[in-house]
Amino acid sequence: MRTTPADARTTEDVIDLLRAQHGRIRDLFDQVMNTEGEERTAAFRELVRLLAVHETAEEEIVHPMARRLPGGDGIVDDRLAEEREAKELLSELDGMDTEDPRFLKSIDKLRVDVLTHARAEERYEFDRLKDQFSPAQLKGFAAAVRAAEATAPTHPHPGTESATKNMLAGPMVAMVDRVRDMIRDARDKG
Ligand SMILES: [Fe+2]
Ligand SMILES: [Fe+2]
Prior knowledge:
This protein is an all-alpha fold and about 190 residues long. The chain has seven helices and no strands. The chain has one domain. The protein is about 80% helix and about 0% strand. The two termini are about 25 Å apart. Residues about 1-10 and about 155-170 have low confidence and may be disordered. The site of one fe (ii) ion has 6 residues, from helix 2, helix 3 and helix 5.
């Protein structure tokens, strides 16, 4: 079979993509905790951006489909409660100086919560969902999530981004709305 990089992109499925994002989220938490100064700020901003795209995609694609599984309502309600808690903690962290000692304590709690949440998603949702989507949906949603991530504000290299320090809150909200719109479009067409 002939494949090009472009083909490889369009054949990726959304469950694989979301699972790979769990890995990137884990790595970004490590980066935030093991760096300091502007490097930490940059890693944190990227983490916030990825979490916004990722959780929005799950809320629009994964959780609605998981509700149809046997026992799905209970599983999804638990995951949504975890996501709500994580978002609250994230917005507290968002207003904090990344060098504040309370920041490290809170980010560590958020890390444990988010990674536990991700494991539960993989076990109770991802592993059971692949058969529920058509191949076209798996591809189409992957493309939508990728496109949504590509429209999120890019983060400059550490050391060059102090001017953008205050840009996080506004674009975050706009980005989540945009991600939601793109994914809903793909979902309603699929
Ligand atoms: Fe999630
Ligand atoms: Fe997730």
